[in-house]
């Protein structure tokens, strides 16, 4: 025991200095080369029942502040950071959901410092399916020269919010237009859903044939 005590006390100032230098070096290696950055990330809602749909969110993206080694951050891309919110159990209504650090997935070695905004407001409605009659609209500039001869299909299936669809029986096409000149012209035309909350339309286009007057 005496031998150990003498060894410890011998040149104790030099040993203490060595310890301080070792701790300082470890701290420098651990922290030098670290940086901070902010990444705009798309929010990914998860686990919402199929019979429901999101009709609005107050923001689609959040700003995530992260900290980590420069060697990692310099190659980091927005898709390397994922922000998910759990909507399991959400029915119809308005929800304010806290975005927690644990909801954010980042590469190994990177730390999440903060996220803005910290809350997300989501509106959820029950979804329904409905058969809608197609109404073909011809661009006014062609009405003097052409008329709608036929279109197919006559009905489409819309899947969307109940509030948006339950009182609706028809859906218009966008105005049929083109470089017309032949006796008959055939065109695939998309449907106008800008005033509807629809997540799926089957089919998405209608085959329209117009004929010269």
UniProtKB/TrEMBL annotation:
Signal peptide: none annotated. InterPro entries: c-di-AMP_regulator, YbbR. PANTHER family: CDAA REGULATORY PROTEIN CDAR (PTHR37804). This is YbbR-like domain-containing protein.
């Amino acid at each position: 025991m005496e031998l150990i005590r003498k060894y410890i006390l011998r040149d104790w100032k030099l040993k203490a200095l060595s310890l301080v230098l070792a701790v300082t070096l470890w701290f420098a290696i651990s922290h030098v080369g670290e940086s901070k950055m902010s990444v705009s990330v798309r929010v990914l809602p998860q686990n919402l029942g199929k019979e429901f749909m999101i009709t609005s969110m107050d923001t689609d993206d959040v700003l995530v502040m992260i900290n980590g080694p420069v060697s990692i951050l310099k190659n980091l891309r927005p898709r390397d950071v994922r922000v998910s919110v759990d909507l399991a159990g959400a029915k119809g209504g308005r929800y304010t959901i806290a975005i927690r650090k644990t909801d954010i997935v980042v590469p190994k070695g990177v730390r999440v410092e903060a996220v803005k905004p910290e809350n997300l407001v989501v509106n959820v409605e029950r979804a329904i399916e409905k058969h809608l009659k197609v109404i073909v609209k011809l661009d006014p500039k062609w009405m003097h020269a052409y008329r709608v001869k036929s279109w197919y299909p006559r009905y489409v299936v819309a899947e969307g919010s109940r509030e948006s669809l339950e009182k609706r029986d028809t859906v218009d096409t966008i105005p049929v237009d083109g470089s017309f000149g032949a006796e008959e012209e055939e065109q695939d035309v998309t449907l106008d859903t800008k005033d509807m909350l629809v997540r799926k339309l089957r089919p998405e286009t209608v085959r329209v044939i117009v004929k010269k007057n």
